[in-house]
Design a protein that fits this description.
The protein is mainly β. Helix content is about 10%, strand content about 40%. The chain contains two helices and 20 strands. The protein has a six-stranded antiparallel β-sheet, with no helix packed on it. The longest helix is centred in the first third of the chain and has 21 residues. The N and C termini lie far apart (about 55 Å). The relative contact order is 0.14.
């Protein structure tokens, strides 16, 4: 019965969206536009309103460059109201201010169907409040955010990976220090015999490992300012894609809503206590194979080369 109820609920939702898209007011708004109004609340990391921040809002009319810009500054309460005509499929907000990292947010009325219907020539909810985080620039370091694919023919066995150089450890690559070990699990088959592949990561040193940190989606600086030395560091991770017998694909990818804080190159005293370690930020781990039976891994992130320095704030474009 529960399954039947779920199916009926999903069917009802689909029919509601379809009905909204057939509605003449909705169709006219998608073709010719309707009024939209968004009340933007800009606040810093601690929730304090940010006044005199520059705001630019693009109200799209189906396809760029069609549309118009609404520009201005937040008031003393960090509020800016954008209003104008849009077809609902592309609304972009850019917020900047000296001393803060830039933020960018996209909104879209059209795909939400029944949630954002059109009433009296206006997208609903008209005057919706949205909060945008404008993160402060504190102590940016010259950390290199990078990570191109590195390839190896050594499949199904553990080899070292260096986060600082974004490469496998010699002799498999140009890396010099093993921050963690990688195994690319694959039999080398390419299409049409491809059945899937995956990658395993493990941290073998005492005190080494990683923990999850929530990404700040709207800011160009998405990670945490610093690592937590007392965090609960995990030792292993696995990502994969597999083809089942009925042709379906099973996938477990890196969670785009979280990044990793990594601790590695750990040094301990004779009693096993941690003396020194390096900290890194990892925004993405992905993998692939080539027709030449080489497996590749990409680890996108930044490595802080100073032992025991927990700062993970990179100096990058978007800092004013």
């Amino acid at each position: 019965m529960k399954k039947v109820a779920v199916v009926l609920a999903l069917l009802t939702a689909v029919l509601q969206v379809a009905a909204a898209k057939r509605d003449p007011a909705y169709r006219d708004a998608r073709r010719n536009g309707a009024l939209a109004k968004i009340e933007l609340h800009v606040a810093d990391d601690e929730g304090t309103p940010v006044g005199e921040a520059e705001v630019k809002v693009f109200l799209g009319m189906n396809f760029r460059p069609k549309g118009r810009w609404v520009k201005g500054m937040t008031d003393t309460n960090g509020v800016f109201v954008a209003e104008g005509r849009t077809c609902g499929d592309e609304i972009e907000v850019f917020v900047t201010k000296a001393g803060y990292y830039d933020s960018r947010v996209k909104y879209c009325y059209a795909p939400m169907g029944a949630e954002h219907e059109v009433s009296d020539g206006k997208w609903q909810p008209y005057g919706a409040e949205e909060t945008i985080e404008l993160r402060m620039i504190k102590h940016p370091l010259a950390l290199s955010l990078s990570g191109d694919f590195s390839y190896t023919k050594r499949l199904n066995e553990w080899i070292g990976y260096d986060i600082e150089t974004h490469d496998f450890v010699a002799p498999h690559g140009a890396g010099k220090n093993t921050d963690f070990e990688v195994s690319i699990d694959w039999n080398g088959d390419w299409y049409p015999d491809y059945k899937g592949m995956g990658v395993r990561l493990r941290f073998t040193e005492p005190y080494s490992g990683y923990y999850f940190s929530t990404m700040h989606g709207s800011s160009v600086f998405k990670g945490p300012y610093a690592a937590d030395p007392q965090g609960d560091y995990l030792k292993e991770a696995r990502f994969y894609e597999e083809k089942t017998g009925d042709g379906q694909a099973l996938r477990h990818r890196f969670d785009k809503d979280n990044c990793w804080v990594v601790r590695s190159r750990c040094k301990v005293d004779k009693d096993g206590r941690l003396l020194a370690a390096n900290y890194s930020i990892v925004y993405l781990v992905s993998f692939c194979g080539t027709p030449y039976k080489s497996g590749g891994i990409r680890v996108f992130g930044a490595f802080n080369p100073t032992p025991n320095d927990t700062n993970l704030e990179p100096k990058r474009e978007g800092a004013r």
